[in-house]
Amino acid sequence: MKKTLALLFIIFGLTTARCQEEIHKEYLGDNFSLEGTLTAFKKATSLEQFERLLNNRNSNINNLDLNNDGAIDYINVADIKNGDSHVLVLSTFLNETDKQDIATISLDRTGDAEALLQIEGDLDLYAANTILEPTEEKETLQESTGGPNIPTIEVESLLVNVWAWPCVHYIYGTRYVVWVSPYRWNYYPHRWNPWRPFAYTLFYIRCAPYRMMFHTVATRRNVAAKTTYLYNRHSSTLLLNNSRGNSIFNKKINVRNSKVIPARRILTRTIPVRKGILSGLGIKRTGRR
Q1: Helix 47-54 vs helix 34-43: angle between axes, to the nearest 10 degrees?
Q2: Residues with Cβ < 8 Å from 142, sequence gap 6 or more?
């Protein structure tokens, strides 16, 4: 009996160790859910409410502690407007003067009642070209044209028109005033109470449902919006990160350490989308079911 129990404990220990080995963060941004961010944006009716959802503990979106002070970082939202294009910048203060961008949401109006949206993680926290967007899949059953009469499934990925999202209506409304978060270091909403970050394995499990709703893409669609943001990006010189997702915060530097710098140039393919048209991307795969 004792040998059996000992064997079970050994198996359990090996299984737990294996799970912990498989679920680990590779980048600092793994502690911030881009998919959860888009879910909150889809739910919000204004950018003020969107910011509240990002900083709600129960939303399971934010697990960042970039300055390693043992408390969760407050996420600020600011809109950069250029015509019908908007870039929503998500950032956080590391101290009184130092600021670090986390991600950007690019929103572009492409017709009278059509809009496209993408979110991209900042280069300091995520792998290059970490871009996500809402997509839908349309499946069509096709009969085989030769050989055994085995039907195939044709899957087409479609762009999602986000015009119906309440926050999009709010942004393109006639009464909209460009939103810039009024909060800063040590000045936060009275209802917000920071909490200690969760262990990454637990955070990974908590935000798992969000990963089913959005897809990673290799194409940046709104190039104009990205250009608008290019010279307004905040990158911290205090924050050092590596591929293992570790951060080092140097508290001994007393000079102003946050600077606005041009983002590094990254070549990406761009698929033009004509105004007034939201059509399928033509991405298809064929396989057996």
Answers
A1: 140
A2: 151, 152, 153, 154, 286
The amino acid sitting at 168 is V
Residue type, 261: I
Q: CA-CA distance, 141 to 151, in Å (whole number)?
A: 7
Give the rounded distance of the alpha carbon of 129 from its chain centre: 12
Cα dihedral: 159, 165, 167, 171 (round 10): 60
User: What is the full per-residue pLDDT of the chain (289 aa) written as tens digits?
Assistant: 544 544 444 444 444 434 444 466 689 999 999 999 999 999 999 999 999 999 999 999 999 999 999 999 999 999 999 989 999 999 999 999 999 999 999 999 989 999 999 999 999 999 988 999 988 765 566 666 655 666 666 555 677 899 999 999 999 999 999 999 999 999 999 989 999 999 999 999 999 989 877 888 888 887 777 777 888 899 888 775 444 455 555 444 433 444 444 434 333 343 444 444 444 433 333 343 3
Q: What are phi and psi of 258, to 5 degrees?
A: -100, 130
Rounded Cα gap, residues 92 and 99, in angstroms: 6
CB proximity list for 90: less than 8 A, separation 6 or greater: 37, 54, 75, 76, 77, 101, 102, 103, 104, 105
C-alpha to C-alpha distances, 29 to 55, 88, 199, 229, nearest whole angstrom: 16, 17, 14, 19
Q: Name the pTM for this structure.
A: 0.74
For the chain, the first-to-last Cα distance in angstroms comes to 46
Structural tokens at position 71: 């408390």
